[in-house]
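Please predict the structure of the following assembly.
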Amino acid sequence: MLRTFTMKERAITERTLNGRSGADLQETIRKSLDLAFPSWPLQNAVAVNPFWNFSDRHFADVMDGLSPILHADLYMSVSFYMEKYRDGSITETALLLAIDAEAKINSDLPCNIETFLDLSRQDDAPSEDTLVFSEFLDRKKGGGWGEFLQNQAAKYAAAYFDCDQALVKFPWKEKGFWQAWKAAMLIDRSLFVRKINAFDQYLSEFDAIESFDHIGPLLKRIGLDSSATNSVYFARLLARNIGWASQFRIKEWSLSDKEHGKEYLLDFLLALFAYDYILIRHAMDHDATNLDDWRQTFRSGTTADYGKQRSAVRRIWQNALELSNQRSVAEKIVIGQMEVASPKYQMIFCIDVRSEPLRRSLEKTSPDISTVGFAGFFGLPIEFVDATSTKSSHRLPVLLRPNWRVREDRLDPSVHTTLASKQSSQYFLNFRKASFASFLFVELFGIFSLLQMLGHLLKSLLPTPAEKRLAEDFGRPGASRMSITDLDDIEIDADSQVQVLAGILKHLGLKDKLGRLVVLTGHGSATSNNMFAAVLKCGACGGHSGDVNARLLSSMLNNPEIRAKLESHKIFIPKKTWFLSAIHETVSDSLLLLDEPSVPASHREDLASLTKIMTLASKALRKSQAKSRSVGLNSRLARRMESWSELRPEWALAGNASFIIAPRSWTRAIDLGGRSFLHDYIWQEDEGFSTLELILTAPMIVTNWINMQYYASVVAPEVYGAGNKTLHNLVNETAVQEGNEGDLRVGLPLQSVHDGSKWMHDPIRLSVFIAAPREVIESIVRKHELVRNLVENEWLHMLRIDEDSKTIEQRLPSGSYRTHSKP
Amino acid sequence: MKQVFFIRSIMSALLLLLIASIALFAFYLQNGTSIFTYASLQSFQPSMSLTVRVDTLSTLMFMMISFLGLSVGHYSIRYLDGDSRQVYFFRYLLIIVLAASMLALSGNLVVFFLSWLGISAALHRLLLYHSTRPAAVRAARKKMLLSRLGDVCLLFGIGLVYKVTQSLDFETIFTFLGNEAQRSGTPQNNGLMTAASVFFVLGALIKSAQFPFHFWLPDTMEAPTPVSALMHAGVINAGGILIIRLSPILEHHVAANLILTVVGALTAVYGSLVMVTQNNIKKKLAYSTISQMGLMIFTCGVGAYSLAVFHIIAHSIYKAHAFMSTGYLVEQRIKRSFEPKAIGFAPFWGIVFAASLLILLGASWRMGEFFPYCLYISICLLGFSQTLINFKPPAQSLTRTSAMVIGSTLGLSLLLCLLFELLLSMEFGHKGRIDLGMTLSPYALLAGILGFMIFVGGFWLSQKLLQPSSSFAQRLYMRLWNDSYFSVRSTALLGYLWPAHYRSIR
């Protein structure tokens, strides 16, 4: 069912070099491309681990290695950690443990807390000597070259990828980027205006360059030849334009099979190089001393020993912070707690950290209900085509490829009107976008903005209640039907459908525990005027709400024909069980049932009592969240959804710190503060351990991506964060830049992780707690390279919960386990 | 807590201002144009009285400014929440709204000029909201330098007017010029007044970001969105208000009107063509503002002041809304459901062009007084033809879609006619400017036709741009896309003035 990573991704991983001997120019340059990670358009933005290409190297090495290239520390500042130590978030025990661990590999460091604190206080600034020539020139004598050339490159990237914003398309769009850039540069006079009079001559030196293969002579001409220097140089070029680089990556990622392997990012790097090259050539012809100075500085920058002690201090603090957090979670888990009697109602939630408080609240409200944590796309490998559109959207994790196409057919006639009005939208769009029509637009529609503005004002002052907004966003008026085909529009027969469903039900682990009502609960979020709305939605559903998947699965599982066929797979759904779908709206933490009308009369009573529980639980949760998770947000909840000026509708996954793969009964009694991903898992019931294998290869990687996105957006917001929302400027209708700054901003915006006075997310690596035997975990780690990379290189902490001894032990790199000492 | 109190007080002040403006408008509807003197400074030389002028222009502008101030303020309560400089923003928001209101209401040139400076100073502060961003500082400096140039022009104009009329009060000046005109038979045939009007026009062109003084505007996206909203909706209109307020002086000077018409048309065309090549929303909106301001100046130049006022209001509100609602665009793109096919609009635009030329000729032949409005309708008709770019509904919903499009087009045209009907009945500028029966001077006709030719030329270029395969179109694209390198060039020039701040690391 689950086609795993695309071949491309594997190729990238394999390509990454470990050693440096024998690396020829090609390899050097390709290696620098690892810095770029894919970043999805805002319409379906999902979390990405920006360090994914480096996952075959150790976390600490990568952080230290990237820091001089990015000119940013990839840990928090020492003062941040000191503050955490002062307020007790970093415990003394944890700090000691971290110091000890570091002392084992680094004998220069002190091994008691006092001397370590002293050492921390004498902190220095990082060195930033690895500069490309334009930057160097700025630092030495000003001139704004770095920014200027960065913006020039960005200008081309934006025009090249623009499909929606500008009505007039970039004339050279059909060519490859490098060819397009070169053709356009012939008539672009920007550099000429900046007094590089011979720029066309320098540009012509690239005439013979079709790709990076031929670049050797040019490098020699400007005196860059050692491959170590080269790799840093190209990485720095890319780092300065990392936002656009990520767009070239996503372009490569989403190429169709036919175009597979086409390279775009390399073209971009070539253009970036060409800009710097032109400036270098200009300097060679005019003032060569600058150039010598630059080479000198650059060389010393690449060979310099980058503050070993500096990074060691930070590493210790970081480990201590993570250990402290890990221990507080570990202490809470009630190992071996027995399952309660089969409940009447079950609700299946996404593993998302935001499900945890709601699940707790539901279970607290009534003993009749139990909840299950599962991947939010419910294992359905689908792309979805809305009844009123022709474009499909992928409703599954981005690392997977869909193999079903689900079409919604709305049966009521109003759909035609919707369709027609959608199609005439281009007409109204032209009013706004075309040159002369825009005059008319202002004359005709301008004044109506007054009404719109008053409407927004009114909505902010008297927002519609959450329930109504939910019905607007997720409700489907009138009857609809979903048809399932494969990607070539050939219908998928019931048998193959059942095969997929059988797998899902097995992994759900509910085989003989099904209650009277089973609610598949996807999650989504309702906000207004929010460019980053998709970030708040379900990552497992590809940055969409989970309603479609929930609806589809519940309707399939209620189908008597399918139920009958499932019996051949030894799955018996009792007659008394009815499946429902619901949506968990994460701003208001309310629940909305999506297919209430279809519930048969026999379950009406159950439905009523379930609805009551749901309402009570949401209400109770909202009340408690107001004190904990809603700090720094607008206290009026409905306004967070409805007002057009809310930059912080919810804290989303901020604070995520752990992933617990264990029976729910072990975590039911504890408050995890909305910081844990929860996946239900009982190893005794997992035949062949295929479920665990799936969890570790899919959901765990998704959680790692989320966790690392938050990490990077907090430790290096200038590089990996999307910047300040108040300055955001929508580019190509799919991405943002800050103000007029040319490079795109990717990652999470400042307002998603910061409340104006403090960080709302502690950057810590995920601690994955698994309740399973050692051998099972080890065999999965051995089998899957991606999992092995994450675990062995400590991109996450893996911990094992031992049921028999009721202890938690940490998996150390190389596969040994160390029992957590009891505090 | 202190901060909350501060913001609340400012919001209350803005609310009071809006209520006051509505009250004043009601008063105006009852009593017509009136002038209040609140202080008479007889002991000064030049003697002048501080007056509030209540007329169509001032009351409408006052209402618009206070409404925008309140909306932008309300938006910023949450939008800038948690931002360390929120209080800073609100402080200058209040100052800018007060200054702009004063500008609209002022009855004499001195107060007008002081508010003019006040707006500029407060805006400068707001543009430096993120004073650690080098690009923000650069943009503010470009704006400041140009503004000073505009101030000097305005000052010269004021000086010359004083020299001729011995007064700085609008009413006295207008009466003086009226009497003079009656006495001599020819309206103010005075070299000094012509010079004054040209200076005023230059001041207005610079303030309203007219080509080639427009380049600072696209650079100002380095301040938070509410600042952009305020600037594009409010501040930029000061130039237009100046022209309309001084229309009794300007309207008789061919040179002034010619400059307004030609520069306005050029800016409108140039701005709109640059706009369609921009790849990010804020730049797109900036060039849209430039082109819309061009159109407004053009309409002033041909004497359709009521249209210009309406345009200022419609555009301001639209633009403020557009800036503050860019977040919705992401979602709208999801909702747009089909892949647009690129098609031109060649057969259609020919017909439209012919029709508009016909209207233009007919209009100028017999109905001189409607000439400016007919010009305007012709330009709008050119615009209508562009709404069909890339528009190709699929066969199955052709009827419904066409019905929607045709229906809305007809409805909108009707709306436009009603609008013009309304505007024609309004009274702007000096009394009697667009009285029926007034004959059009041949110069004005010439200026109007020249302006229209610029629009037609621009329209032809816009058609060329849609399929930029020829070398000419590619060069055109390159020039427009880079805004003729104005930004790069002005940044380089700025580097000579402030070399120290020219470094990217501050």
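Chain A has three domains: 37-127+308-332+655-823, 133-303, 342-411+466-640. Chain A has 35 helices and 20 strands.
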